[in-house]
Amino acid sequence: MTSGFFDGIEKIQFEGADSKNSLAFRHYDPDEIVMGKRMEDHLRFAVAWWHSFAWEGGDPFGGPTFERPWHPQDDMGRARMKADIAFEMFEILGQPFFCWHDADIRPEQGNFAENLKTLEEITDYIAERMQLSGTRLLWGTANMFSHRRWMAGASTNPDPDVFAFAAATVKSCLDATQKLGGENYVLWGGREGYETLLNTDLKAEMDHMGRFLNMVVDYKHKIGFKGTILVEPKPQEPSKHQYDYDAATCIGFLRKYGLENEVKLNLEQGHAILAGHSFEHEIAVAAAEGMLGSIDMNRNDYQSGWDTDQFPNNTPEVALAYYHILKAGGFTTGGTNFDAKIRRQSLDAKDLVAAHVGGMDICARGLKAAAAMIEDGGLERALQERYSGWDTPQAASMLDSSLDEIAARVLQEDINPKPRSGRQEILENYVNRFV
């Protein structure tokens, strides 16, 4: 028996590039083989419970615009209704995964004991729905940024009682993720930062955050959780300056606190933009250090200075992102989570489904373009040619030499190099052949 929320919307089918059906896949065929692997297994799509079902359509200047049958989200009956509707949409889309924060799936109770009780109750209910649907949990996480208790941070909070509440909350969410067979656990430090240094002991907060994350890793091993622990970079918003600014900052943090072999990164397109980077830059940085875990796929409005979390629609951007993911060997436990929300004026159930259909199609187009570029090998050949000078024994030995020895050689051989073209426009034209 269905809820009626998606009445008139059938399971989405692949109809091919010429289809004019707004509720059909034109490019996403889950069984299509790309580089020897099913497309579904490459992309590993996930629906974000928070934006798709918990978000009510508000923004910084206005309240909710959505009227859903599970609103207000303040009791367990409506939490179960929300779960039923979520699994209906997973079935319509053929989504293999979903993701949640604890506050998305259970109502806020105001104290830890009641939050724990309702979390356990709703995860038991979700587990039953998972058994019936086959949809899996890509990752779980704790919302430690919305409630007023988190206004000065969670693990970085100056109040040790808040640190304790955060530790208990993460334990409960990691337990729930384990119970539901989640393949990862994510920590996003939305309030792990500061508004002003006038009231902030930056070193103490960083040390507390590092110790907290070590506790999470220790508990993961204690309970035998086989998934990956992920942290998610973001430069600002809601905090003025967040400690997990970008991929490079997070990698330095993980190394400082001895976590580089235990924790990987969950990278988001919108966060990369806020940090002044491209998405492929963040992916390439993480991949170069062996710390690429998973991605949140969305985009920002380039005319707005904040995180608008829109569904992806730019094939060249997406193609370059998947190019670096494929170069790194593809996802293992990670996947493509649509951390994206429909617009406040997009009120209907059809809008919610169509947004995911379009996002999945864009990712499929991007994946196929990325695979075609890798199979053609043009970018790799250009890289090899540009760095070919380092292939000689003399150049390689220079890295084990000293400044004195190198300077002597420059004088002896009268080395005076001439600049060589980087051929950027040619390479950009090359990419455009595939997208």
From TrEMBL:
EC number(s) from the headed UniProt entry: 5.3.1.5
Keyword Hydrolase part of the UniProt annotation: no
Cofactor requirement: Mg(2+)
Cofactor binding summary note: Binds 2 magnesium ions per subunit.
SUPFAM superfamilies, A to Z: Xylose isomerase-like
Gene3D superfamilies reported in the protein's UniProt record: Divalent-metal-dependent TIM barrel enzymes (3.20.20.150)
Sites where the protein binds Mg(2+) 1: 232, 268, 296, 339
Record-listed Mg(2+) 2 binding positions: 268, 271, 307, 309
Keyword entries, A-Z: Carbohydrate metabolism, Cytoplasm, Isomerase, Magnesium, Metal-binding, Xylose metabolism
Compartments reported by the entry: Cytoplasm
One of the GO biological process terms: D-xylose metabolic process
Active-site residues, Swiss-Prot/TrEMBL: 101, 104
Single Gene Ontology MF annotation: magnesium ion binding
Gene Ontology CC entries for this record: cytoplasm
Main location: cytoplasm
Top-level lineage group: Bacteria
Catalyzed reactions per annotation: alpha-D-xylose = alpha-D-xylulofuranose
UniProt similarity note: Belongs to the xylose isomerase family.
Entries under HAMAP family matching the protein: Xylose_isom_A (MF_00455)
Subunit-level organization: Homotetramer.
Name of the protein in question: Xylose isomerase
Gene source species: Ruegeria profundi
